[in-house]
Each structure stands twice: as structure tokens, then as C-alpha cells.
Automatic annotation (TrEMBL):
MF-aspect GO terms: DNA binding
This protein's name: Helix-turn-helix transcriptional regulator
Name of a matching Pfam family: HTH_26
Occurrences of domain HTH cro/C1-type (ranges): 13-62
Family matches, as SMART domains: HTH_XRE
Length: 76
């Protein structure tokens, strides 16, 4: 998937556990794990805003776009 999720990076910087983040954001640890591991198909803006508020960061600190190396190779 071309969208990478860097919640782990922010958790480490803030010295916060997944359970604590889930509780403070108001989502289940299971749903946070789905998002954190890049398996989510979508994320609500309200959830993204809550993550940013709790982690004191910008959306770009949590999500980034990366090229798909396999797709680039087939274009050559």
C-alpha cells in the first residue's frame, strides 16, 4: 500500500503505549492496531484529529505516501 502509517514512531517519541493511546483517543486497542499496522482501508478525520491532538503532532507525522517499487519497475 502506498500510504505508510508511522504511529509507532510517534508512540516511541511520546513514550506512550498502544493501550494508553487507544484509551485517550477513544477507540479500541484492536482498531488502533489495525490502523497502526497499515491494514485499515480508511480513517475518519475525527479519529485522525484525535490522534494528532493526543500525540501533539500533525497528520503528516502519522501518515506518509511512498512509491510502490514494484509498480515503478514495471514502467521501465
Amino acid at each position: 500500500m502506498p500510504i505508510a502509517v508511522d504511529i509507532d514512531v510517534m508512540l516511541a517519541k511520546r513514550k506512550m503505549s498502544v493501550g494508553e493511546l487507544a484509551e485517550r483517543v477513544g477507540i479500541t486497542p484492536a482498531n488502533l492496531a489495525v490502523l497502526k499496522n497499515g491494514r485499515a482501508k480508511a480513517v475518519r478525520f475525527s479519529t485522525l484529529a484525535a490522534l494528532c491532538e493526543v500525540l501533539e503532532c500533525q497528520p503528516g507525522d502519522l501518515l506518509r505516501w511512498e512509491t510502490d517499487g514494484a509498480a515503478d519497475a514495471t514502467m521501465l
